[in-house]
Amino acid sequence: MAIHIQEYGDPNGDYLMVFLHGGGVSGWMWEKQVAAFAGYHCLVPDLPGHGLSREDQEFTIRSSAEELLSVIEERAQGRKVLVTGFSLGAQVLVQMLGMKPELIDYAIINSALVRPIPSANRLIGPTVRLSFPLIKLRWFAKLQAKTLYLGDEYLERYYEESRQMELNTLIRVLEENMSFRIPAGFSEAAGKILVTVGEQEKSVMKQSAWDLTAANPRSMGVVIPKIGHGVPLAKPELFNELVQAWLQGGELPGECRRL
User: Residue 153 and residue 157: Cα distance in Å, rounded?
Assistant: First the structure.
């Protein structure tokens, strides 16, 4: 089954922009971004096991990266390519940069875990099997949505998609997430790279942002103040302003600081 992709904006825009969502949500998380960048040609995939690609349950970071690289090669048609990824989607983006270092001109890596957590990985299967029935309950979905900065406007979509996710898909996604590391080819990525992390994120996420920034000489790290894991959803206007400023080589928003 081919990955589902929604298109927005101007199909003749100078940039091809691709937005990769995090685990447990789907392409709708980027609604405020595609509205802000309506002058560009925007592609918003649902990763395997998520949203309208949920029947394609064989999720791996590498296979997702391979499929998306093929889509970009087909659709770019000589235009500049910008890819933005959040969390799980950011890991897919890092993998893409490692596999085809010359293809992506601008990469925005938001909150990507690149330090494997072996102890957590061993517990994923048993823990998820015990807690999985909770996913079907609205009150649990509401609690989870709050941690992702999902307001009432997205709660129903999040709840419905959570209820439809398969147990094995969730386990696979978490295993991939917790075992991911920076691929060898990432250091050769030729485009500009922006690495962002929330000021209130866990230390392993901040360390991962440091690792990514250090791994490629064309990367720049930025800390977003007063926020945890979910900057594009929690502060969409600030995030969009940051992207525009970075693309145009201007001053970053005053709230942001270099890593």
Answer: 8
The C-alpha atoms of residue 22 and residue 204 are separated, in whole angstroms, by 17
Q: How many helices (H) and strands (E) does the chain have?
A: 10, 8
In order, the DSSP letters of 12-63 are: T-SEEEEEEPPTTS-GGGGHHHHHHTTTSEEEEEEPTTSGGGTT-----HHH
pLDDT at 48 over 70: yes
Host H or E run for residue 253: none
Q: Write the CB contacts of 151 (distance below 8 Å, at least 6 apart in sequence).
A: none
- 87-96 residues labelled b (16+ CB within 10 A) or e (exposed): bbbbbbbbbb
Q: Tens of pLDDT along 9-32?
A: 999 989 999 999 999 899 999 999
Extract long-range pairs of 89-93: CB within 8 Å, 24+ residues apart. 89/19, 89/20, 89/21, 89/22, 89/47, 90/20, 90/22, 91/61, 91/176, 91/177, 91/180, 92/20, 92/47, 92/61, 92/64, 92/65, 92/68, 93/20, 93/65
Read off the pTM: 0.95
Answer whether residue 1 shows pLDDT above 70.
no
